[in-house]
């Protein structure tokens, strides 16, 4: 998806000259050992680079300037082994453009009761050094991640690793180009938004193209590429009889393969890692791209249907965050409700475009009429998705700010087979229950389009919202309607006062 090995995070240890050379040498050695330990952890996906201990305002400013200018550096981690008077950090922190994580750890885990003396106390000062450092960032209203825990523990390493994944997603957005093939679905509100504000806020650039830009690539697809891809379809999926060689719908599969090859060529030529389409602007495309979009998502592309560029960009960022983790991530839509006497559920799906990374088994490859858009019958992959914890995330434009809404859900097995439903789908139980979850979602203006992930937890998106400086609303097992409404009201005032949004 991306080349993680090329990326790095800088580990910056703060101190001052007051302690003398011997202590500063020990500080440097200890912080190098922490970096080595974190780099050896399988939970930490990005290489940490140990930087010289910073002891003066000039050294701090210099390392922040270098971090800003280094394109491989996706963020910094800071730690105050000793006391580092925080006025020294003001200039450096004010110019820092990269995400920052404040790791509140300590070189030794426990107090050595029988040996502890004042030398030990002078060396191991993060308990107060990190508080001084925390104050200045709070005083400067600087958003950052704070992680508290001993660096050798799995819990701390996991938190560091997860934050690095979010920083990778953020780094991806800074260079992301989204191609909109066609415009927004006519008259739809929630998929619209301010693309200029989005570029200022998230870095992502969103620009419009025409179906003819893709068709041009479709027309130059070679027979050998086409035959190779048809073989891939035969190997990776259960093709229904009509799509197999000699089947009466074989031409539909050939058209779908040409669309995939053409779309891939278009995206590669333009350097796009995310895209949208819409059934109302298909031009000369014979089918609404289904199989092609599903397979591109599985390869890590962001996608949003009906011109939904916000979801396309969010999906790409979240796909990058999940690289190497178990569990899939897909474009999703709340499609149909299942109200029962016991509990209520939502069936998530889309007309075609659900990513097979969330499939529970080998997908079947089928062709059915769409009943919308007036094109030929599109080919699509059909599958169920495994049960277990997941979440839906929706990014909406509130006019003066972007709002990210997250609902934790529990995917469950459908009560019965769905032999006549020709699309991939997931059934979930939204937390805390259907009533509170969906009432809150609707009050928040959450979209019908979401990113559905089994690989990320809410904490990833909380960190993402902090890095982006956007509003986050979480609906989980602790949500109550009254508290949620209060949060909505409080946030209106907060974002009006501070104009963080745009
Ligand atoms: Mn839709």
TrEMBL record:
SUPFAM superfamilies: FucI/AraA C-terminal domain-like, FucI/AraA N-terminal and middle domains. Keywords: Arabinose catabolism, Carbohydrate metabolism, Isomerase, Manganese, Metal-binding. It catalyses: beta-L-arabinopyranose = L-ribulose. Residues 8-173 form the L-arabinose isomerase N-terminal domain. Residues 328-471 form the L-arabinose isomerase C-terminal domain. Its cofactor is Mn(2+). Pathway: Carbohydrate degradation; L-arabinose degradation via L-ribulose; D-xylulose 5-phosphate from L-arabinose (bacterial route): step 1/3. Residues 177-324 form the L-arabinose isomerase central domain. It is an enzyme of class 5 (isomerase). Binds 1 Mn(2+) ion per subunit. Mn(2+) binds at residues 306, 333, 350, 449. One of its GO terms (molecular function) is L-arabinose isomerase activity. It comes from the Bacteria. It holds the Pfam family AraA_N. InterPro entries: Ara_Isoase_C, AraA_central, AraA_N, AraA_N_sf, Fuc/Ara_isomerase_C, Fucose_isomerase_N/cen_sf, Lara_isomerase. Its EC number is 5.3.1.4. Belongs to the arabinose isomerase family. Catalyzes the conversion of L-arabinose to L-ribulose. NCBIfam families: PRK02929.1. PANTHER family: L-ARABINOSE ISOMERASE. This is L-arabinose isomerase.
